[in-house]
Amino acid sequence: MTELIKTGKKRTILISISILLVSLHTIYFYHAVRPDIEIKKLIQQGIRFLLTIGLLVLVYKGKNWAKIVSIVLFSFALLGALVGLFTVGNVSVINKLPLIVMIIVYSMAIYHFGVSESFKAFFENKNGTSHDFHVEE
What we know:
- The chain contains 5 helices and no strands.
- The protein has helices at 3-32, 39-60, 64-87, 93-114, 117-127.
- The chain has one domain (3-127).
- It is mainly α and 137 residues long.
- α1 (3-32) packs antiparallel against α2 and α1 crosses α5 (117-127).
């Protein structure tokens, strides 16, 4: 395994963890400001979280359709975070910080899954289409 493939693997794992942490924070933040926990909404968010885990696992395993779906979904999330950042109104920067973190994480994910050379090398290696055969002696 070349250094480029190792870097792609490491960054894929780190970005996936970041996305899951943002998702967990979103779930927590939604319920923390409410007087009562909405069970229906919590179940809905839990299912979305599990689907996110599944999608990220399939991207890690090298499924091309999962990569495309994740880029599209992360683009929508990025767009939503940008709109939210500019429409929130007169609140402090501290209150906008979760949106800024979302923008950074989803931007990194879109770049990594769509453009990054290290992810391309890792993805090709997962699919067995790597053209870089490195023989260790």
